[in-house]
Amino acid sequence: MNSDKKISLVLGSGGARGYAHIGVIEELEKMGFEIISISGASMGALIGGLYACGKLDLYKEWILGLDAFDIATLLDISWDKRGFIGGTKVLDKLSQIIGSQKIEDLPIKYTAVATDLTRNKEIWFQKGDLLTAIRASIAIPSFFTPVEQDDMILVDGGVLNPLPVTPTMSDHSDMTIAVNLYGNIPKPEIILPQKEREKQNYFENILDNFIKKAKNWIEISDDKKKESYHVFDVIHMTFESVQNTLIRYRLAGYSPDLIIEISREICGPYDFYKAYEVIEYGRVAAREAFEKR
Question: Which of 51, 249, 275, 279 could be bridged to 56 by S-S, CB 3.0 to 4.6 A?
Answer without folding.
Answer: 51
